[in-house]
Design a protein that fits this description.
A hairpin with a 3-residue loop joins strand 10 (448-453) and strand 11 (457-462). This protein has 16 helices and 16 strands. It is α/β, with parallel strands linked by helices and 545 residues long. It has helices at residues 9-12, 53-56, 64-69, 79-83, 94-97, 124-133, 141-147, 155-165, 192-196, 200-210, 224-227, 241-244, 257-274, 290-307, 362-374, 393-409; strands at residues 71-75, 169-175, 214-219, 278-281, 312-315, 326-330, 343-346, 379-382, 423-424, 448-453, 457-462, 470-472, 485-491, 500-502, 507-509, 521-528. The protein is globular, with a radius of gyration of 26 Å. It has an 8-stranded parallel barrel.
């Protein structure tokens, strides 16, 4: 029997309300989660991280395993996917857009006016919703949730595909802005287990860890406070405020205590139950009360100590100090090498299911991954499943091709670190930052990207198939960039002899007869270092005179 633990929050809410279902237990069969079995660490209270930034800054926030991984996968999937069925223009923010009988700027609350007569108009999502389901007053997002039917979800198949892609960690969007928990929850009744009978998060954890993949969960529910603000014009009431949040004005961007308690409770439950290796945050966390943010960071890192695991927090904007997590660029990246390790989350198409979706070609994903790694970053790639939980054939093909390329070239990607410069060539993104992928750029065979392992190995990736001899100008003997002398050069995935010479032009590599991949070509450049002349004793080359 399940009794939702957050019933107590109605007592501490700024505006008290009763939660539907809080006064009665509901039948529930708990999911048995296969726990990781790392070595246990006896975390004494004196050794625990405290809820202050100075103490928390002592954590190893970018462990080697995470910097080595380079590629992770997560999945935008849930009731929003179901809501997008039949939509010409899908909406990743369906739960916000469907309540816009009059479109407004969510940042200001101002109604948008159109045409010469300056009249408001409803959003496309609202129009679609009325036509497909009826007025949101009668059929709201809470009813969309009831239609979510993951009858083709297969955690084992997903895990096989993610492993094939070359990803080193993966996991679900545990909760998006719609506040629907994709796990077996006792703190919210709006959860996948109770509505569908499936513990999506638990099943994925088991399947992924069987394949030696680390486990990620992502959280987007800080924005829920803004997301559902207009729902109270329709079907939101005090009785379902545990989904829609407590009633507030559109421009009231400061969540109340009840919201903060729920935000943390959902995180704590996933931490305790599923022991994720990575917790990734979408934006709006920076708006939350700092004490709750510190409370979360301390709790998670202390649990990591207890489990004997080096766990990782990813964040956007200024949600956390850079000393406690890894900064994420949404659909973006810097245009230069960064000293601090970073990451990007991106998608080959829309974030959620989109009918007749168009995806970028695998070559673009490979090129972006190389550029990210060369600049000291990591890619978190979104896979948007169909509403029923099956993976689109286009995504299966893309992930297989990405994995095939990494099978050949992974030596120059995994466990590497950035070299002295990230690359050379004519193609470079303008500026840098979030959402710069709107700049559609195409790398050429004149574009080179570099990574390294230790001090003796440099990898050079030619971003398109060479049509003539390759010239790497950065290695020009007049620039003295190389720290050693070239010992040998080999093409990754090929046994073909590599002919080369080093001169004033740079490193000139003879055009290969064949290449092992239809995507970027990788070269492994091995160096040797001459020993320095010692001090004392006889000078080298003398007869001791």
């Amino acid at each position: 029997m399940k009794l939702y633990k957050l019933c107590f929050l109605s007592i501490i809410s700024v505006t008290a309300f009763n939660l539907t279902g809080c006064n009665e237990e509901q039948p529930h069969q708990p999911t048995n989660i296969q726990k990781s079995e790392p070595q246990k660490i006896n975390t004494k209270k004196a050794d625990a991280y405290q809820e202050d930034w100075d103490s928390l800054s002592q954590v190893n926030h970018k462990p080697d395993w995470f910097q080595d991984a380079k590629l992770g996968i997560y999945t935008h999937w849930g009731p929003t996917s179901t809501a997008n069925i039949g939509m010409k223009w899908a909406s990743g923010w369906y739960g916000l857009d469907m309540y816009m009988d009059e479109m407004y700027d969510w940042k200001t609350g101002e109604v948008k006016l159109y045409g010469e007569d300056k009249q408001p108009k409803s959003s496309y999502a609202y129009q679609h919703h009325v036509e497909a389901h009826g007025n949101p007053t009668e059929f709201g997002y809470k009813d969309i949730i009831k239609q979510f039917n993951p009858n083709k979800f297969d955690a084992e198949e997903w895990a096989d595909l993610f492993k094939l892609s070359g990803a080193k960690f993966a996991g679900p969007v545990a909760v998006h802005h719609d506040n629907f928990a994709m796990w077996d929850s006792e703190v919210t009744r709006w959860n996948a287990k109770d509505f569908t009978g499936k513990d999506i998060t638990g099943e994925l954890k088991i399947a992924l860890e069987k394949r030696d993949l680390k486990f990620l969960t992502s959280f987007h529910h800080a924005f829920t406070w803004v997301y559902y603000a207009n729902a109270y014009k329709f079907d939101a009431t005090a009785e379902n405020a545990d989904l829609y949040t407590d009633q507030h004005e559109l421009t009231d961007f400061t969540p109340n205590k009840n919201f903060h308690e729920r935000w943390f409770a959902m995180l704590k439950e996933v931490i305790d139950k599923y022991q994720p290796d990575v917790i990734w945050f979408d934006w709006w966390v920076e708006v939350l009360n700092e004490e709750y943010r510190k409370k979360f960071v301390a709790y998670y890192y202390n649990k990591g100590k207890e489990w004997g695991k080096e766990v990782v927090i990813n964040y956007k904007n200024n949600s956390f100090p850079e000393s406690v997590g890894v900064l994420d660029y949404e659909r973006g990246r810097p245009n230069k090498l960064k000293d601090e390790f970073w990451m990007t989350d991106t998608s080959p198409g829309a974030w959620f299911y989109y009918e007749n979706a168009k995806f970028v070609n695998p070559n673009e994903i490979v090129d972006i991954l190389i550029d990210i790694v060369a600049k000291n970053g990591l890619m978190l790639l979104n896979v948007p499943p169909n509403p029923d939980g099956s993976i689109p054939p286009e995504m299966k093909s893309m992930l297989a091709k990405l994995g095939g390329w990494l099978e050949i070239n992974g030596e120059g990607i995994y466990e590497t670190r950035p070299w002295a410069v990230f690359g050379e060539g004519p193609t470079r993104i303008n500026r840098g930052g979030h959402k710069i992928e709107k700049q559609k750029i195409e790398y050429t065979n004149k574009d080179i990207r570099f990574t390294k392992k230790g001090n003796n190995t440099i990898f050079a990736f030619v971003m398109a198939a060479p049509t003539q001899d390759i010239v790497i100008q950065t290695f020009n003997i007049n620039l003295s960039v190389l720290e050693g002398k070239i010992k040998s050069i080999e093409m990754l995935g090929s046994t073909e002899r590599v002919d080369w010479q080093l001169n004033g032009q740079g490193l000139v590599i003879t055009q290969p007869k064949t290449v092992p991949s239809e995507f970027a070509i990788g070269y492994k450049i091995s160096l040797y270092h001459e020993e320095e002349i010692g001090i004392g004793g006889e000078d080298p080359g003398t007869n001791g005179g």
